[in-house]
Design a protein that fits this description.
The chain is of the alpha/beta class. It has one domain: Flavodoxin domain (Rossmann fold, 3-Layer(aba) Sandwich). About 40% of the residues lie in helices and about 20% in strands. It has 6 helices and 7 strands. It has a 5-stranded parallel beta sheet, with helices on both faces. Strands 4-5 form a two-stranded antiparallel ribbon. The chain is globular.
Length: about 190
């Protein structure tokens, strides 16, 4: 059975460097035998997480659907911008809500537990989103994910892509190729399904 990898950009902005980086990762992973899919957080609008809302109304359907998509994967690649050296609120809110899902189709589930996760970021700054990835890493490890040490950063991302969306920097390109390969290998060895 082929491993399944989900790519999750942490931005919905159309001109987002991270959406470009996610597309490049998808192109690379599509050349393998893995089943690759991509999720757009714009398709899963959610209210800001609030425990009172959860108590009164339960977990929103979009959070349940997102958690179901995540739980069905062997690996997850999060490609996220950095906001003030941390996790962007859209991504953090989606993770917070999805982590509250305890059942999918009446089966117990913890969407992130045991999930192999790779991290990547593109940023106009010189750190390439590295600090934001560290913040995401802390959150995901707390949820039981197997977050890979290896990551990909693209600093100075305004000049990081050509007109076709391909990475222009050899170091960044090699880093992304290596991350995708390692994510797939790790997901295969720690597969949660099949």
């Amino acid at each position: 059975m082929n491993s399944s990898i989900l790519i999750l950009p942490g931005s919905v902005r159309l001109g987002s460097y991270n959406r470009k980086l996610a597309s490049e990762a998808m192109r690379l992973l599509a050349m393998t035998d893995a089943v690759i899919s991509r999720v757009d957080l714009a398709d899963y609008p959610l209210p800001i997480y609030d425990g009172d809302v959860e108590t009164e109304s339960g977990v929103p359907q979009n959070a349940q659907l997102l958690a179901q998509r995540i739980a069905a994967q062997d690996g997850l690649l999060i490609v996220s911008p950095e906001y003030n050296a941390s996790v962007p609120p859209l991504l953090k809110n989606a993770i917070d809500w999805a982590s509250r899902v305890r059942k999918v189709d009446e089966r117990p589930v913890q969407p992130f537990k045991g999930l192999v996760v790779g991290l990547a970021s593109a940023s106009p700054g010189s750190f390439g989103g590295m600090r934001g990835l560290e913040a995401i890493r802390i959150v995901l490890r707390a949820l039981g994910a197997e977050v890979m040490t290896q990551q990909c950063i693209v600093p100075r991302a305004a000049d990081g892509f050509d007109e076709n969306g391909r990475l222009t920097d050899d170091v960044a390109r090699t880093s992304l190729e290596s991350l995708c390969e390692r994510l797939l290998d790790t997901a295969r060895s720690l597969t949660r399904h099949g």
